[in-house]
Amino acid sequence: MTLTATKFATVPNVAQLPNGVRIIHLAIPSSVAVGVSLGVDVGSADEPAQWAGIAHFLEHLVFRGTEAYPSSTAIGEAVESIGGEYNAFTGKSYTQFICSTPKSHGHLSALIPAELVARPLLREVDVSDERPVVLQEIALGEDNSWQRAIRAFEQVMWPGTTMAQPIIGYVETLQRLSARDVREFWSAHYTPRNTVFAIAGDLTLAEGVDLADRVLGSWSPPTSTAIPPSVTPSTAPSRVRWEVMDDRREAVFALGSAVGPWNSVPHGPLAVLSTLIAEGEGSLFARRLVRRASLLHQTGVLAWLNRDAGAFGFTSAARPDLLERAVAASLELLNAQKRGIKPSDFKRALGYARGEALRQWQRPLDAATQLCHQALMGESDLGPDADVAAIESVRSDDLEALLVHQLAKEHLGIAIAGPAGDEQRIEQLLNS
Amino acid sequence: MELTLTQSMQQAEARNGARVLVTSAHGTMAAISAAVPCGLRCDVDSTPLGASVLLARSLSLGSQRFRSSDTLAFAIETLGGTFGVNNDQDMCSAMVTVPADRLLAGLDALVDLLSHPLFPVAALSRERRRCREQLLASAAIPASRAGDLVDQLLWPDSPIGKSAREVARSLRTITRDDVVHLHSTTFGAQGVVVSIATPGSLEQALDASLHAVETWPTGGTPNLGGPGFGEGRCAAAAMPADLVYLAIAAPAVPRGHPDAETLNLLAVMLGGGTTSRLFVEIREKRGLCYDIGCRFVPAATTGAIVIEAGVPPDQFAPASAAIVEQCRQVTSTSAQGELDRARALLLGSLAMQSDRPETWSQRFCRDLLQLNRPRPFSELVATFRAISLEQVHSVAQRYLSPEHLRIAVAGPGVTVRSVVRACAQW
């Protein structure tokens, strides 16, 4: 018996408003929701040292009130009373504001992010009200071993650069930030030319452009000059960092290497390599290190690819007393792949990566977020078809080359969060 | 607000009693869910605590047609699919997502791993070890520990109230025979539900699923009563952390109870969105936490309302008092606008989740298993619209008054005595 299925073929459209806002549109026929992501080309890597954490703090503050919705409750009521959802997140090199509504209220999915980005109030009282919330967020991160390992991994990968600064900043810098600092940062970076409006759903390009124009067409703020990014001198570069959490019964580690900026990275091969090594139940780490050798509890991929620099590796959790063996076995397995990848492993990885590419474009909000991300990275091949084509063109040799060049032992670094252990021994393993 | 969703649906029962349901989805992927009534609450009498957990985790270690976990993983993932098996208080569920034109392959694999598992000795032994280690690791995380403690307060005499540590301890003694026995007594075809959401032909999917389940052996299905609630009110675990993690809970009702959907709305009003009372009062006004949430957690035979937050150690007493004050106030001061918003949020979110096939394949699977019928979106809209503010107040008074609340706290320096002192301020 053959089953019928709808064809998946979608190429995004690109347009621009007269003020410079870039528009990316993707039609997803029959979808219930409309999703919008409004991305601004500024993240924590663009911060001066004395303002570490300001990009993320600003992302929080805009939710305290805008011209049309002067309080956080007013914003929330507007979205939630029609069953919508909204959020935002700050990265190393961009900030995205996202909103999704049922398509009958598509206008709101565009309006809310536009209000947050273009017309926030940024009052003194907002700063004093929001500061303790972000301080609690820092504390929450300190209690999370996965977050601690990843933050430490950033310091291993990009030592002495603004990329190594935590996105959330430091308690000390946050305590000092004023509303004036935040307004200055906002006016320097939140400009139409720095902004991408991505929209996905069951609507036409003309409808998408019309929505963007209605909410952002008249946005033409005075521009100011940004303070250049800088970094606080930190500890000496090291290939191993250990975040001690003695009370935990699991050690989390991130193992990998720095890769170049977004536009220098071969995305198709990297996606397939990810699935070959650590994504899915059939990945090498899952089969051999989790299920067969019982060295890892779980494993995943850390592909943090940014505008100016990236990192690629694997996150895993192990019993603390097995950590050294788990790291050694992970390295050995990676090395073995450099000598040749089994055809069946490659075939599985290719199929799984293709499926993942399809899955991440299903929901309009996910699609808009992904489109916005790609556009902010300067990607020219946007959308699901390009993603799938990039994966389908990958050959086994591409992966072996990536392993040899990107994951060479001299490039590898590791960050661990868990009970204290022998740091030197871990460094020896990396060098061996 | 007018919210509609076009849902086509077909269902049938196989000769062996297995029930199948197919529903429409859009896009390119299909989701196949299957569930059997074998959850943690089945770990009673001669079944050791944790046997259902180990059983669920061992299903994907190999089956009659896919002899090992590797074979199974390759069969599904090479097609671009994913699979996973979970268990909760009531049921063991598995789900496969595949490109819609590979539905048959995904369906065959899913049915085989649930109906004809091999439970290979060596692989099962390794899985038991991993499961124990993960449970112990989870018990060392303060937020998880607070959740564990509040479950113990709610259901001290039931397997569903046992802590991760207790389950881990018990897992040591569980044999392959225990797992095989539990499978034979709970995974019978007459208790099985398979639910598919696909953009393809429903007729073809229904035929295929009936064909796939016809070799599912008949066997036992559990018939268990609901657990009673405990009388304990406070629990604490001192653990190093930057925050203190609170879990405040009230006994509630099972899925399908006449109060269930009102409690669902009440939980959203209290802590389900950024306009909810707890979010506004505890986070936005007082800055006491980064995140706070309230959930109604219904199961087949019991249920609870649970509020969770992480707060600064020196603020846990005022924070818990402020949370309880909101629980008290919602019983009388909540307004029609809050109810309307909670209703819109629940329904809008559900409608928008329909853009992924997993949403309705999983919902219908659980509905069929626990309520014996699927509840389409139109029925949920009608149910929620019929709930009045008076009903919300009445339910809040009956379930959320302070004398019903339990509190568990995990974090630096906390003791049962300090929690009892905090409760005295309520």
The gist of it:
The complex is a heterodimer of chains A (432) and B (426). Chain A is α+β, with helices and mostly antiparallel strands. Chain A has 16 helices and eleven strands.
What is the number of domains of chain B?
2
Record the strand order, biggest sheet of chain B.
1-2-6-3-5-4
CATH hierarchy, class of the largest domain in chain A:
Alpha Beta
Structurally, the number of domains of chain A stands at 2
- Largest sheet: number of strands, sense, barrel closure of chain A: 6 strands, mixed
Compute the CA-based radius of gyration of chain B: 22 Å
Beta-strand proportion of chain B = 15-25%
Defining key terms:
heterodimer; A: 432 residues; alpha+beta; Cytochrome Bc1 Complex, Chain A, domain 1; 2 domains; 43% helix; globular; B: 426 residues; 16 helices; 45% helix
Structure notes:
The complex is a heterodimer of chains A (432) and B (426). Chain A folds into two domains: 13-216, Cytochrome Bc1 Complex, Chain A, domain 1 (2-Layer Sandwich), CATH 3.30.830; 240-431, Cytochrome Bc1 Complex, Chain A, domain 1 (2-Layer Sandwich), CATH 3.30.830.10. In chain A, 43% of the residues lie in helices and 18% in strands. Chain A has 16 helices and eleven strands. A six-stranded mixed β-sheet of chain A has the order 1-2-6-3-5-4, with helices on both faces. In chain A, strands 7-11-8-10-9 form a five-stranded mixed β-sheet, with helices on both faces. In chain A, α1 crosses α7 (179-189) and α11 runs parallel beside α16 (423-431). The longest helix of chain A has 19 residues, at 124-142. Chain A is globular. Chain B is of the alpha+beta class and 426 residues long. Chain B has two domains: 9-213, 2-Layer Sandwich (Cytochrome Bc1 Complex, Chain A, domain 1); 234-359 and 373-424, 2-Layer Sandwich (Cytochrome Bc1 Complex, Chain A, domain 1), CATH 3.30.830. Chain B contains 16 helices and eleven strands. Chain B has a six-stranded mixed β-sheet with strand order 1-2-6-3-5-4, with helices on both faces. Chain B has a five-stranded mixed β-sheet with strand order 7-11-8-10-9, with helices on both faces. In chain B, β9 and β10 form a beta hairpin. Chain B starts with 8 loop residues before the first strand and ends with a helix. The model of chain B has no long low-confidence stretch (mean pLDDT 95). The chains are: A alpha+beta (432), B alpha+beta (426).
